[in-house]
Backbone:
């Protein structure tokens, strides 16, 4: 694998590594998209209510992603050293940490449910639907976090097939349970939005149980030598990597929550249309997100080998690719827009909101992809502070202010234009920042002369 990353054709290497990631991500993202399709059949109010939950759900998932990044990094490094005893300790303690965080989030979420969603802009008409959905969803917070950490242990060993397969099966189960539990079939009562949350909870729980059934994973887990001191030591080591990654991951849903609050000022139909649009947007970005997971290892290894020109070609080649790819995705969305609008909205103002979203927001996804890849590249260059600053600029200095200003000037369409302009602006900033950083690295390497092995 090291030889491939250092010497293999860049484009082909990244493609081979992206494909299994794409499969797993499609399955993971389909949860919300399938839920949205079924909930749309219940009417605009339930759909608007569930749209309010998306930033909160995304925040929990972002925390899980950060924990997975930390777990994978620690376990992979120990595997490279051949320290299998410590691998079992860290993997076990990571799973216990995921369980503890999940239980804590369940308690905090249920205790703050109504005040939080009132703060996000939900009114009295939507709160009953939100209570039904999140009251059930919060109970399964651990089932959302634990399997992501377990999957990261498998990926650290080079096994991407099992995690992708498990997520695909969970997505299929979720779709089936949505139909059974939301509308009721036979003796099963119709639970509405509560049924959608229960379907998600049961699907993730089933995947967690199936993961524990994998021999390769069971061999990495060991509760026999658990001690409080050892547990805290593991959590500190995991936290050094997981906490910055989780904080950066949480920035996106926090900004999304603020934009949702801005959209809420334009009515329930605006929130519902925007909520559907954000779910379609997530699917439209899947290629970029897969690249953001597969590009960093190539960057890190080639920097270590002093192959700075290869790093530059990989990063900027990916930049050009995502700009062209996302333009193609935008064109495809325009062709599919009539069908998407008819499938996910009942007509009227909500349809107009979704159509406007699909025209403006995806047009900036190429520039947003440049930012996402720049953030992952800075992390791969061991410069997480730069990555965090870039995320702050994109989300809080440009996205939220321009969305607010657009809403004031041009209503709901102005909000979407503001999101487009924010992505284009920060994409330019990201491109320039990485170009300067890589040029500085190449100059420093040239001044230092040929790399010599350490003695």
Residues:
């Amino acid at each position: 694998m090291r030889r491939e990353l250092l010497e293999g054709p860049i484009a082909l290497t990244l493609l081979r590594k992206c494909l299994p990631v794409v499969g797993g991500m499609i399955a993971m993202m389909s949860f919300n998209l399938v839920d949205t399709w079924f909930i749309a059949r219940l009417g605009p109010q339930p759909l608007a209510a569930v749209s309010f939950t998306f930033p909160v759900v995304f925040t929990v998932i972002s925390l899980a992603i950060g924990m997975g990044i930390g777990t994978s990094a620690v376990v992979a490094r120990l595997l490279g050293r051949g320290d299998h005893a410590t691998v079992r300790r860290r993997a076990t303690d990571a799973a216990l940490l995921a369980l503890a965080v999940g239980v804590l989030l369940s308690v905090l979420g249920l205790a703050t449910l109504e005040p939080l969603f009132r703060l996000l802009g939900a009114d009295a008409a939507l709160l009953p639907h939100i209570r039904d959905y999140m009251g059930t969803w919060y109970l399964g917070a651990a089932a959302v976090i634990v399997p992501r950490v377990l999957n990261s242990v498998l990926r650290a060993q080079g096994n991407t097939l099992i995690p992708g397969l498990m997520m695909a099966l969970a997505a299929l189960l979720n779709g089936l349970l949505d139909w059974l539990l939301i509308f009721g079939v036979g003796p099963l009562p119709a639970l509405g939005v509560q049924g959608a949350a229960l379907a998600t909870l049961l699907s993730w729980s089933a995947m967690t149980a199936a993961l524990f059934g994998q021999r390769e994973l069971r061999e990495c887990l060991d509760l026999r030598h658990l001690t409080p001191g050892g547990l805290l030591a593991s959590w500190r080591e995991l936290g050094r990597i997981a906490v910055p990654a989780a904080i950066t991951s949480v920035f996106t849903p926090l900004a999304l929550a603020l934009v949702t609050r801005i959209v809420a000022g334009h009515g329930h139909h605006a929130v519902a249309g925007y909520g559907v649009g954000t779910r379609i947007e997530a699917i439209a970005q899947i290629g970029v997100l897969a690249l953001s997971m597969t590009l960093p290892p190539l960057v890190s290894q080639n920097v270590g080998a002093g192959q700075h020109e290869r790093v530059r070609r990989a990063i900027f080649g990916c930049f050009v690719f995502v700009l062209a790819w996302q333009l193609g995705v935008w064109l495809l969305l325009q062709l599919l827009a009539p069908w998407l609008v008819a499938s996910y909205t009942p007509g009227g103002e909500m349809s107009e909101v979704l159509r406007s979203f699909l025209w403006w927001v995806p047009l900036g996804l190429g520039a947003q992809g440049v930012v996402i890849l720049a953030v992952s590249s800075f992390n791969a260059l061991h410069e997480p502070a730069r990555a965090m600053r870039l995320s702050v600029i994109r989300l809080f200095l440009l996205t939220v202010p321009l969305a607010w200003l657009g809403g004031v000037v041009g209503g709901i369409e102005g909000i979407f234009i503001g999101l487009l302009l924010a992505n284009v602006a920060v994409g330019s900033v990201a491109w320039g920042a990485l170009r300067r950083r890589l040029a500085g690295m190449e100059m420093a390497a040239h001044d230092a002369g040929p790399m010599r092995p350490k003695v």
Summary: Residues 384-448 form the longest helix (65 residues). The CA atoms of residues 120 and 404 lie 15 Å apart.
